[in-house]
Predict the structure.
Amino acid sequence: MIYAKRGALQIRHGWVVLFAVLVAVALAFAVPEPANAAGSSVIEAESMSKAGKVFADKAASRDRGRAFFNGGTALKNFHGSIARVAVRARGDLCRGAPRMVVKVDGRQVMSRIVKSKTWKSYETTFSAADGAHRATITFTNNHRKAKSCDRNLYADKVSLSKPATVAAPTTRSIALGTAVVGGYPNYPLNPLPLDDFASMTGKTPAVVNWFQDWSGGFVREHFEDVSRRGAMPMVTWEPKNYPRSGSAVNQPDYALRTIIAGKHDTYIRNYARESAAWGKPMYMRFAHEMNGDWYPWAAGVNGNTSAEYVAAWRHIHDIFQQEGATNVRWVWAPNYAFSGTTPFAELYPGDAYVDWVGIDGYNWGGSGWTSFADVFGPSYRTLAQMTNKPMMIAETASAEAGGDKAAWIRQAFLKDVPYNFPRIKAVLWFSINLERDWRVSSSPASLTAYKEVVSSPLYQGRLP
């Protein structure tokens, strides 16, 4: 979990004053097709009425596009099912880039800063059942300083893809987990919060995650407390000390080069031996969100490099193997990718050193309200191409302010994950009141929605 600094990064483009130009996009299917049939429909931007100005562009589809300047709307409805929405767009930059917001039936499905001056496809996964719908595109942050500085949005075409034929979601078995235990960010100091969570939601989570720094060793009791309740323990193992004062990031004593050089080997080897002695399956999420800049082990922090991260991971993994800790499953879990984060490929230790791949990401709410599909979609597709390892959402949650948290939960768990994220085998909700009230019980409506997820046949899975 990152701190409020990351929330500022995620919503930094909300600084501009909203100046909306609404453009509705339409689609009609002349020949009905069976539900779940693969295919897509394309709407050429020049076919939209009352929405800016049509202009010639040989790089655009059919040599024409539509420019959105200071006003104009076009409204049409469409009928069909949707699995993916893609808009081919480009922008003029003026003290920032244009923001394009796409909604279906009033629900935001995509928000993109269009930085490219050449045509680029901006896309997202989104599930909508067969029926009548309305799609809108909004250019939200018009700005003009002078003729030489005029921010504009241009659209070429809109593609609405139908769902491909997929296995019935009830055939999947997804493990539902949480980070809820007391004492964050340290150990699960006692099991009572876990029991309270199980009572509140109607079921003990299949996976329980907690956070541990390197000031303490392996505590068998904590693993036993989780295991005897039928849950899988997952420790997020953070090479740092939680400071009582001072910087939580600037900790040169835990720079990656110190791990590679063996300065922490005694501690690491003892933890490995105790893990092996416990003997039961456990998940180790070492040095997560390494692609950001908010932790001491991140590339660019404390003099670290991406290559050193890979080397440090492999060094620790090798020690655990030497000590016979084959019961440990290794989870490599970056934060979802956004502008400025380190590319995943530079930080991946390799399939021989990783058992599971995870992704962390949040809907911070407010003016930066973001769907689950928008948070995770691009990163999921990148990782799915990098490795065939099983995947999990290692941390996620939604704020209340700025939208409908209960609807966000239902869309994420009951639509997005089962239909659009087929490689996901586990999802862990960060149910802690920290930078936001991330708890599933932050409102009665949110708790009701989460209890529907808990009772769904989809989420009865277990981790091996």
Q: What stands out?
A: The CA atoms of residues 211 and 236 lie 5 Å apart.
